Amino acid sequence: MRVLVVDDNPANVEYFIGALETAGHVVEVEVDGIAGRDRALREAFDLIILDIQLPSMSGEAVCRELRAAGLTSPIVALTSAAMPEQISRGTKAGFDAYLTKPISPNQLRETARRFARPSV
Q: Is 54 in contact with 29 (CB distance < 8 Å)?
């Protein structure tokens, strides 16, 4: 599975890469919202994991723009703030799921499994 992680915290990025690559996933990284949006529009990913608080463009804005452009890949929000109103706003933006930090490696791997497309 090819996964795009968009997060500006180097420690988080290293942690996510380690958790996902040990499960056999290929992980690509961008560190700000605009770069993440552009990469997701330019390349095919099986799963996109977006931090909500990103430089240059919020994860919610990125998700809205990706959905408006017709992107159907699963998009998962990753945030430390997951109050009901924030989740509702994210769902309206087009997120398929919300993960809250701190997150365990097993939770990351399970999320990837959950959104994996069956092999043909």
A: no
Q: Are 32 and 55 in contact (CB under 8 A)?
A: yes
**Coil/strand/helix, residue 23:** coil
According to DSSP, residue 62 is labeled: H
Domain spans of the chain, in order of start: 2-115
* Structure confidence by residue, pLDDT tens digits, 86-111: 877 778 889 999 888 889 999 999 99
End-to-end CA distance of the chain: 14
- What is the Rg, in whole angstroms, of the alpha carbon atoms belonging to the chain? 13
**CATH number listed for the domain at residues 2-115:** 3.40.50.2300
